[in-house]
Specification:
Structural class: alpha+beta
Largest sheet: 4 strands, mixed
Number of domains: 1
CATH topology: Arc Repressor Mutant, subunit A
Helix content: 40-55%
Strand content: 15-25%
CATH architecture: Orthogonal Bundle
Order of helices and strands: HHEEEHEHH
Number of strands: 4
Oligomer: single chain
Radius of gyration: 13 Å
């Protein structure tokens, strides 16, 4: 059954009364941490001792870090049992779950950034670490 991602994002924004993904993460009790991850990993989320942690590659630009955060929030909300790294340009990592999280991130990012959803989606699917 396909997910209605625009509706999920709209409901999330209404529920937390903000479009700021960092505040949403905090309100969801997710700890967001910038970390020196390998170049091929943009981010990931893990549940450790019943707490949720989102790790984001600290070498990404600010808007890219925000896009990765939105992507990981999409996984937490839509795929709570799914665990995979957000990998840099690795085609075998592309799954329906990754595509849904990318669409979720692009939609949530559209509230705060001027970048088009296509541009954000392209970064999430291909990555660009400088």
């Amino acid at each position: 059954m396909p997910l209605n991602i625009p509706l999920r994002v709209r409901n999330l924004v209404r529920r937390y009364a903000t479009t700021d993904p960092y505040r949403i993460a905090k309100d969801m009790r997710c700890e967001v941490m910038l970390a020196p991850l390998p170049d091929h990993i943009n981010g990931m989320w893990r549940r450790i001792l019943r707490r949720k942690y989102i790790f984001i590659n600290d070498r990404l630009e600010e808007w890219q870090q925000t896009a990765v955060l939105c992507h990981e929030l999409g996984h937490i909300l839509m795929h709570p049992g799914y665990c995979a790294y957000s990998l840099h340009n690795i085609s075998y990592s592309r799954t329906r779950y990754e595509d849904e999280a990318d669409a979720f991130a692009a939609r949530l990012m559209a509230y705060r950034y001027d970048e088009s959803e296509i541009y954000v989606g392209r970064f999430l699917s291909e990555s660009w670490i400088k």
